[in-house]
From TrEMBL:
This is MotA/TolQ/ExbB proton channel family protein. The keyword Coiled coil applies. GO terms for cellular component: plasma membrane. It is a multi-pass membrane protein. It comes from the Bacteria. The keyword Cell inner membrane does not apply. Residues 92-119 form a coiled coil. The chain crosses the membrane at residues 12-30, 122-144, 164-190.
Length: 234
């Protein structure tokens, strides 16, 4: 049983590292597609948003376009169209003044978008930090087996020692080869995440300034009617 287990350790380590490598490159493709799609969607939305003649048209664009910035703008308009008139049955969320409610909605939506962009990066970080140690474990186990075999055979010639130990060192090399791309991919997307977050923060700041400049003067009933029509059409 022990010999059977020992013969499976090093191959198991190598196959695990191969799986980690496949996951890393798959995440590179998936995350690249995600960021490219979001960039295209944001560019289309911002072009339409800032070309809108009024807030009502901008709100219509926010409900129609996909993308992170469109969802951020949509959350901002949701905060602006809440009725502030006193009511006997009023939700606690509506008791917050409109400026604070707008800031809260924008901040919460940005956090949601960040979490969506961060998906998969923890896996890359884990692969980059653990792959060398997994490879080292396979090497140590392989060397231990090699030394036991050498001791059992009673031969300590260079040919007898170098072959098994050199074979065991392959696991460490593979572990490093898997870890380096994972770390590079992680750092690349970490940079992209920071850039995307800065873009969302800038847009939210501009949106807040636009809302305050207009003194939140927006036709709530018209927006609700527009959005209902868009949902029915879709």
């Amino acid at each position: 049983m022990n010999e059977s287990l020992s013969s499976m350790i090093v191959p198991g380590v190598l196959w695990a590292l191969v799986l980690f490598s496949v996951v890393s490159w798959a995440l590179l493709l998936i995350k690249s597609s995600q960021y490219l799609r979001q960039k295209s969607q944001n560019n289309q939305f911002t072009k339409a948003f800032w070309a809108a003649p009024d807030l009502l048209t901008a709100a219509e664009h926010a409900s129609q376009y996909p993308g992170a910035l469109a969802r951020i703008a949509n959350s901002g308009f949701e905060a602006m169209i809440v009725d502030d008139t006193p009511r006997t049955t009023q939700q606690l969320a509506n008791t917050i003044n409109r400026a604070d409610r707008l800031e809260r909605n924008l901040r919460q939506q940005i956090q949601k978008e960040r979490r969506a962009l961060e998906s998969g990066q923890a896996i890359l970080a884990s692969i980059g930090s653990t792959a060398p140690f997994i490879g080292l474990f396979g090497t140590v186990w392989g060397i231990m087996e090699a030394l036991q075999s050498i001791g059992a055979s009673g031969s300590a010639s260079l040919e007898t020692v170098a072959g098994p130990i050199g074979h065991a060192l392959i696991a460490t090399g593979v572990g490093i080869a898997v870890a380096v791309p994972a770390v590079l991919i992680y750092n690349f997307f970490l940079r992209r995440l920071k850039m995307a977050s800065a873009t969302m923060d800038d847009f939210a700041h501009d949106f807040d300034a636009l809302a305050q400049r207009s003194a939140f003067a927006i036709d709530r009933q018209a927006i609700s009617t527009k959005r209902t029509a868009v949902r029915e059409a879709s």
